[in-house]
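Data deposition worksheet. Section B asks for the primary sequence of the deposited chain exactly as it was used as input, without tags or linkers unless they were present during the calculation. Section C holds the resulting structure in token form. Section D is free text for depositor observations; keep each observation to a single sentence. Incomplete worksheets are returned to the depositor.
Section A, Depositor: J.P.
Section B:
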Amino acid sequence: NVVVDGLNPFSSLSIYHWLLTISWPQFLAFIVACYIGVNVLFAFAFLLCGPDALQSITGSFAGHTFYRAFFFSVDSFATIGYGNIIPVGVPANLLVTIEALLNIVGVALATGVIFARFSRPSSRIIYSRNAIVAPYRSMTGLEFRIANGRRSQLIDVQVQAILTKIERVGGSTIRKFYELSLERNRVVFFPLSWTVVHPIDPQSPLWGLTHKDLVDGDAELLVLLIATDETVSQAVHSRSSYQADEIVWGAKFANMFMRTEAEGIIGMNLSQIHNIEPAALPIVSSVQGFQSQTS
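Section C:
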């Protein structure tokens, strides 16, 4: 949730990175647009070579010089070569030479990008819609729930949580970042869901704060997940965040586990990963938080 200004648009532009990160519909639309655009450009170039630069031995596209030039460009670019239209003269054949070279380079680049998109490791981590402040042992804890949205297995999963909020320090308003200590920041196997918990103890930056304090401080919980995809044996990353209004106080996550009676296999219902239920926070924690604020 940041805006970067002052960058040179040309120095910061990376076509390769952009082609790797856009969606598949956008990527395919870009390929189709480039293909049509190149052929339209060469069609006009053939027209500039004169009315006799392209001749049809079958009389096709008679009276439609642009269509004849466009579809001849398509045949040349795709190396189809039906032979019904032939270039005549040095300028027209020179354009065919350039287009053939452009086809070799373009197909190689497009093939490389498509292979990179397919081979690039990625994860599909499902994050709970809300983070919650829930009862945790004899105090409270900041929690969110995650699950693997793919059938592939993730191993050595590590999570890092950072709280950022605006504070007044020495008469100045600055944004500070706090790395939150977690009950467990690493699991070896990740077959089911994982409820990540940050205990709100006296050492926590959330100790003594209320939901209003987080909203007033424009707080946000940043989450970074790193794991190894067992199928491809490569590291995958995932990140998400929860803004202050996405943190629900006084709630707990609903049970999403299930067990088959016949086989006794444990499973989970991913459709319930976002479900939360009301929960009363420990009174002792509220009193301690109030004392921390007044002190």
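Section D:
The longest strand covers residues 154-169.
The two ends are 34 Å apart (CA to CA).
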